[in-house]
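tool=predict chain=A
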Amino acid sequence: MKHYLCYIFLVLLFISCDNDSHDNHTHGHKLFVTLQDSDGVAIIDSDNLNFLEIININLSDIDCSTLENQMDCEMAGCMWHTMGDTAHCMNMNMNMTETPHDVVVDDANGYWFTSTIMAGYIGMYSLESNQLISSYLVGDQPALLALDSLNKKLYVSRMMSMSMDDGMDMGSTTNIIHELSYASDILESSNEFNLQFSAPHAIGFDNIYGNIYTASNTSDYMAKIEPLSGAIDYVSLDSSYSQNPTIELNRLKPLKIAIRYPYVFISCSGGEWYDSNTGNTEMIPGQVQMRHIDDMSLLKIFEFSTFSHPWHIHLSLIEDKIFVALSGDQASDTDSGVACLEYGQYANEYFLNNVWQKSSDSYGTMHGIVVSSNGEYVYASGRTDGNIYKFDASTGDEIGFTNLVSSGGVRTGGIALSHQAIHEE
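tool=predict ok
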């Protein structure tokens, strides 16, 4: 409980600073957006969506051909290529990119972090200057990040299997959740947790009990990890189908976890699923599950349409609301968009209800999503149009957007928002 009270104090402190400083100038907050195809992180003003800076992400600078064994090669995010009796390490492609994917902000300690899928590195940057402070190679396609700001710990999940636009398949082979410490103001490995299931993509940290929650995108299982003891508990996200964490079912496809005591929320993209036992194809609605933080028991499910494909989710600090990025599906003529759900308990019944949902054929596959600390605005990244969108959190009305990609590829990814207001020069 002491851990929790400290966390609440820090959140309220930053919200208070936010409100005070906002009265003194018109600037908003730093909004961070990963630009996967151009190896950058864009930083923009959350008020007017103006560019502040683009940070070039270059954490590896590795020549794969210099690595002489398979372990070093794969840990560096390179490809071990075997032909006949010869083998060598090579770049994944001739123009290998780092592919920054997720970004998180530690306001309390003054840092922000990003994961690079292809390079296998985690980068640690100054929140004030945006200068690189430290980097650490975890290897094998790191994906999402979860923060323990009080203990200066960072937890790293893994990329699930995906087919890329260039025809290449990607996805990690490890089932490890990596714990990095930055207590000494540099990134260092402090622990690893070996899970029974593969593709532990979704990840979240519980600020009350200090536990990690993760879910496999392929086996439809969820795990609770106690970092101090190393104990791991498992639960199926649908015991009617998923009955073994080691079996890759690929049915619900959980993607993102958000935590607010006493609840854990998991977004599942669903979609078309082939049942190998019956030979039938089923359409699985996208959904958000609401579970209890203690035993991970299922409390409520909210289902979207089959091809809505819920992606990232984010919780309001002010209200009992959860915001969902819906990537949609062009092939099935399902528009991309954003949604708001309300949650809680009334008498002895739990509820998870729709508040609003906005979609449009002009939105380019919504990916990342974040809500402002005062609960007034929602920001979402369009993966295939390179836009960052701003919405009214109460109504879902679009306020504006800014394009973040002037040329080349698009693929905007994870987004994060600092609670600290931008100061005038």
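Residues 391 and 398 are 4 Å apart (CA to CA). The first helix runs from residue 2 to 22.
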